[in-house]
Prior knowledge:
Layout: H1 8-59, E1 114-121, E2 124-131, E3 147-150
Antiparallel strand pairs: 1-2, 2-3
Amino acid sequence: MKKNGFTLIEIMVVVSIVGLLATMAxxxxxKGVRNSGINQAQAELEMMSAATLQLAWDTGRWPNQxxxxxxxxxxxxxxxxDKSGLLGTDGRFDNWKGPYYEGSxxxxxxxxxxxxxxxxxxxxxxxxxxxxxxxxxxxxxYDDDDIYVLxxx
Length: 153
């Protein structure tokens, strides 16, 4: 007598394959979400770098009040305040013609974008606008997920 149906082993193999495919799809979605955040941050930083350079050309000063031709060492960890001169001014920027930037002041992970005149890139201090990246670790902690645009090249 022949019985129709699947054996327990056949069902377990199918379930295992479906589980593996679901895991692979989940990982691909996570990677896509991470990459889209990185791309969004990079695009916003490109706009912010243009705004920061325009501020420096108009006023002769970086957002930290350092003269444009100098590097300085004082970071602005939150560019949204009038102190930075990008969105508004606290009156310390002569020849201010802003606002220079109207985009988001927070990266896709909810952290503030920053201006850092002594950001370490390959062991060299550079002037950048940046994001601490997906892990959010920052304030003079340099790691491989930081996203930044150089302003001094």
